[in-house]
Amino acid sequence: MRKFALTAIAAAFAITSFSASSQAAGNAPVPAAQEWSWNGLFGTYDRAQLQRGLQVYKGVCAGCHSLKYIAFRNLTDIGFNEDQVKAIAADYDIEDGPNEEGEMFSRPGIASDYFPSPFPNDQAAAASNGGSIPPDLSLMTKARVNGPDYVFGLLTGYEEEAPEGFDLAEGKHYNHYFPGHQISMAPPLYDDAVEYTDGTPATIEQHAHDVVAFLNWTAQPELEARKSMGMKVILFLIVLTAMLYALKRKIWSDIEH
Amino acid sequence: MSAPVWNNKVVKWVDDRLPVFTMMHHTAYEYPTPKNLSYMWNFGSLAGFVLVTMILTGIFLVMNYTAHTSMAFDSVERIMRDVNYGWLIRYIHMNGASMFFIVVFIHMFRGLYYGSYKAPREVLWWIGILILLAMMATAFMGYVLPWGQMSFWGATVITNLFSAFPIIGDPLVSWLWGGFSVANPTLNRFFSLHYLMPFVILGLVVLHVWALHAVRSNNPTGVEIKTPQDSIPFHPYYTIKDLFGLGVFLIFFAAFVFFAPDYLGHPDNYIPANPLVTPPHIVPEWYFLPFYAILRSIDFAIFGIPAKLLGVIAMFASIVILFVIPWLDTSKVRSSAFRPVYKWFFWLFVIDTFVLGYCGAKAPDDYFLGIEGLHVITMGQLSTLYYFAHFLVVMPLVGKLERTKPLPASISESVLKGGANA
């Protein structure tokens, strides 16, 4: 039994060290760890924060960044009721068609539509953004190392002037956390970029925290269901395993081993 | 081992025509198993469990996956978001691959420590190596299917290795790709083969178990079963012990699936594949890192053979060499418990594989563990050297020179004296 425990610990240690070392690649500064509501075994999303984050996305990010894996109907997950979702969707013009005449046409959005992309294609996106394509944000916090902390660091990590001796290219901006420090995106957030309906102070940090929380939900909408199921599964397994161990002791009690 | 008598009429009717119940009785119930197996002997059945888990979750994933470069990534996201419990099935499958390798690597290290590859278990060992090779091919092709950045670039790097072979190299790579780059034909064939290979593995597992039942399980003393007192029936003693081990393993597995599902993966694979943008660090999954380190260590040509080709040969040789260790190991004693010198080399080898894994994860010109002046590439080369020296020099020499401890007369004598470590 002791050996078994040692083996398990060794295995856990091994993969931890492997994974940690494979993620440590790269020389960009490590963004400071933030306190997110979903951290830890029991952490969940804060619905009010996700709704504020949606406001920031709509007011700031959506001008350039798509959110193509999210449908308006998904917004019931973050605390909107069906009528609110329908109202949010109806604010958007969605291209649909072709109709019976073979023409594409525009209509108000419905709950089953996805967030429309700001540009019709990558070429248009690049042409409007100095040659860079603003990435889709649906999976952003999963697609970067320490995703939520990184995105928060990026959004709040701009310098007005590049450090002395740093050769900043035309049309680029200096950012502490972006690999290579030269980013095409202009500082997107400023105080009062969005006026919160719930009266939360609209600072840059608050905007960044809220939009990162929202984007973590778009990346991992299953997070709460996953963790709560995980708790039940692991509790069940612990009881089952303890019973199996007792049974094992009983069955082996007549064997000299 | 006499034929069992079946009292149930239906069972007897079937068994007289197809002796499936007799076979099950022989293989599970009567199969005499050494009474002194430690928990290190749990990992074979765990590997079997993971294989079945992978096949089952895989079948359900395929129902919702689309093998086309323009839709594969989106179809995986659809599984994660819109398919009922799709996230659960995918996370089990994704982490199951890592679990499979964890379990199989421990299973293999156990075989190495206790000399389970020695006569008469050579063929059993060989089939095991074939299973590992098939697993590696399956895992590699499976990783390509979500068509993320690491899928695409991993596939590009690994398939390009074959271009190292002279003359046939380039045509071979085009043939593997089904075109002139990793593209839709590549994805389609990888998908087809990824579905096929698990059943090849399953067939190999059947052979592996068949060979096991012919030569019987090794045990911590390495002394064969001699008298009936040395063995106990597999059922119920090892069925319950395996079930308990399975419970512990499932807790470990579930911890990853539910609380850190992306921990063992790479964030870049949540970026859709883009042939025009190369990720700054193309790193394979953790279970390939030691082999990747061996591949990269060879950065010099020998006798005009280019470094790339030598690296590829070294990487394949690192696994192929396992086929001949039954003859490289000259010791008459199986279990390292009775080999005071070799035991140390065994643990050095284990550490060596971890060092290789670390080197595989890092950029070659990084410092090893941050030690100023010691580059990862240098440490990788030293570790590669030891990897091969362990089999080619240590195994033959230590086996000849070492004075082993006296072996117990039998398994039951060892048990009475307190086991192999006494």
Give a short summary of the structure:
The complex is a heterodimer of chains A (257) and B (422). Chain A is mostly helical and 257 residues long. In chain A, 42% of the residues lie in helices and 6% in strands.
Task: Record the SSE blueprint.
The complex is a heterodimer of chains A (257) and B (422).
Chain A: H1 2-23, H2 47-59, H3 82-90, E1 93-96, E2 105-108, H4 122-128, H5 147-156, E3 158-159, E4 173-175, E5 182-183, H6 204-219, H7 223-252
Antiparallel strand pairs in A: 1-2, 3-4, 4-5
Chain B: H1 9-17, H2 20-30, E1 32-34, H3 43-62, H4 72-81, H5 86-113, H6 122-144, H7 149-160, H8 169-177, H9 184-215, E2 231-233, H10 234-259, H11 289-297, H12 307-320, H13 325-328, H14 342-361, H15 376-401, H16 411-416
Antiparallel strand pairs in B: 1-2
Helix pairs in contact in B: 3-5, 3-9, 3-10, 4-5, 5-6, 5-10, 6-7, 6-9, 11-12, 11-14, 11-15, 14-15
Describe, in plain words, how this protein is organized in 3D:
The complex is a heterodimer of chains A (257) and B (422). The radius of gyration of chain A is 24 Å and the shape is globular. Chain A is mainly alpha-helical and 257 residues long. In chain A, the strands form two sheets. A three-stranded antiparallel beta sheet of chain A has the order 3-4-5. Chain A has a two-stranded antiparallel sheet with strand order 1-2. In chain A, 42% of the residues lie in helices and 6% in strands. In chain A, α2 crosses α6. Chain A has helices at residues 2-23, 47-59, 82-90, 122-128, 147-156, 204-219, 223-252, and strands spanning 93-96, 105-108, 158-159, 173-175, 182-183. The longest helix of chain A is centred in the last third of the chain and has 30 residues, at 223-252. Chain A contains seven helices and five strands, in the order αααββααβββαα. By secondary structure, chain B is mainly alpha-helical. Chain B contains 16 helices and two strands. In chain B, α6 (122-144) crosses α7 (149-160) and α14 packs antiparallel against α15. The two termini of chain B are 33 Å apart. The model of chain B has no long low-confidence stretch (mean pLDDT 95). At the A-B interface, α1 and α7 of A face α4, α5, α10, α14 and α16 of B.
